[in-house]
Amino acid sequence: MARSKELTPAIRERICELHAIGWGYKRIHTRYPDIALSTIRYTVKKEKERRDGVSKPRSGRPKKPTEADKDRILNATHKD
User: Which residues lie within the region annotated Disordered (predicted)?
Assistant: First the structure.
């Protein structure tokens, strides 16, 4: 798989189901050879942190403050 691509929830769920029934990482990798072995391990490890198979949001650049936000900040600093 490409470096920046994310597994679909269906594939993640299938990997975790296979692991739950006793399949090992290498056996799952032979079933899905296009997915790296390390990705399979990581997917199984992180499954308990997901809610309903949905990934946690990634952190990103902070939102740019709007004019109203800037005014609110200035008013708060002038009051103190």
Answer: 46-80
Give CA 55 to chain center in angstroms.
Answer: 4
Residue 38 zone, left/alpha/beta (φ > 0; ψ -120 to 50; rest)? alpha
- pTM flag (> 0.70): no
In a domain, 64, yes or no: no
Q: Identify whether 72 is part of a domain.
A: no
Q: How many domains does the chain have?
A: 1
Question: 19 and 44 in contact (C-beta within 8 Å)?
Answer: yes
Residue 63 lies inside a defined structural domain of this protein: no
pLDDT at 57: 75
